[in-house]
Design goal:
With about 300 residues, the protein is an alpha+beta fold. The chain is built from 6 helices and 11 strands. The strands form 3 sheets. A 5-stranded antiparallel sheet has the order 1-7-8-5-6. A 4-stranded antiparallel sheet has the order 2-3-4-9, with helices on one face. Strand 7 and strand 8 form a beta hairpin. The longest helix has 20 residues. The radius of gyration is 21 Å and the shape is globular. The relative contact order is 0.15.
């Protein structure tokens, strides 16, 4: 699933391309009886309402909150997109072939949109410059909905999300206070809890714990403050590096031009099972366990469980 750096990379790309454009049309082939009556475009009735609200409107800003992309329009409405497991947004020109029942939207430009991982487009916004914003969603898990900007923070989608870890207001004391909400839980699970801290997922949790030298099974209450300070610093550094490297494309993620990020080339723990630890002087090996149903990677030497 795209995490904070991938979502921020997408937002940064959209800011360059779609602000100031007018929406001329929207298209979707999502249709599921399971989502009937829901406030997502997977319900055709809701999609029709969304289309009525957004066609003709101008994009005034693009922002991120946690793992959500917020496309703000000039009528106090926000198109909220959560890319979920394998979704990503793509910007360019497409041609539509109504004779195709699978992948009727064929990428034209830029050529990077033709990457096979950019197939299975299920939602498209057309703009007045004849370009398109397409949602590639291989597994059809992504969420697209409309939120009134004046009710954004209290909406069902955002009201329970924790603070943003890269803001100036996210200090060490705030970090420690947030973790203390789950004192008896394993630290890896707490980092993944979006109600505690926003935006951290499996990749960046593993990499941050590796940097801080903390075992993913360590209970929050067992971690001394000096170690928590290291973890705080590691999280902010790791997330920032993820953005600097354009996100992580070990799996499906691509940026808005359909191109890979390169943070996967910087991994020290995630999916490096059996490889020698890269920490200077460590000599350990990266091992894999399952924590809370998620594959988890750590060094068996410098990430030891603390004595209690």
């Amino acid at each position: 699933m795209p995490e904070l750096p991938e979502v921020q990379t997408t937002v940064n790309g959209l800011k360059l391309h779609i602000i100031g454009l007018h929406i001329t049309d929207v298209w979707s082939d999502y249709s599921s009886s399971y989502f009937a009556g829901s406030s997502t475009i997977k319900d055709p009735v809701y999609f029709a309402l969304l289309k009525k609200e957004v066609v003709g409107r101008k994009v005034v800003s693009v922002e991120r909150r946690a793992k959500n992309i917020l496309i703000r329009l000039d009528n106090h409405q926000i198109i909220l997109v959560h890319m979920k497991m394998t979704g990503h947004l793509l910007y360019g020109t497409y041609s539509f072939n109504p004779l195709l029942t699978v992948d009727p939207w064929e990428p034209v430009s830029p050529p990077s949109l033709k990457d096979p991982f950019n197939r299975r487009v299920h939602f498209v916004i057309s703009f007045n410059n004849n370009h398109h914003l397409a949602l590639s969603d291989m597994r059809k898990f992504a969420k697209v909905t409309l939120v009134d900007a004046r009710e954004l923070e209290t909406s069902l989608h955002l009201k329970d999300i924790g603070p943003e870890p890269l803001t100036d207001t996210f200090t060490l004391s705030v970090f420690i206070q947030r973790l203390s909400l789950r004192p008896q839980r394993k630290v890896k699970q707490v980092l993944l809890d979006q109600t505690v801290i926003a935006g951290i997922g499996n990749i960046y949790a593993d990499e941050s714990l590796w940097r801080a030298g903390i075992h993913p099974l360590e209970k929050v209450s067992h971690i001394p403050k000096e170690k928590l300070a290291l973890l705080y610093k590691a999280i902010r550094q790791t997330l920032s590096r993820g953005i600097d490297f354009g996100g992580d494309s070990m799996s499906d993620y691509r940026n808005v031009l359909g191109e890979k990020g390169s943070f996967q080339e910087e991994h020290q723990a995630y999916r490096r099972t059996g490889k020698k630890c890269g920490k200077k002087g460590c000599g350990g090996t990266i091992v894999r366990i399952v924590v809370g149903g998620r594959g988890t990677h750590y060094c068996n030497v410098h990430q030891k469980l603390l004595d209690t």
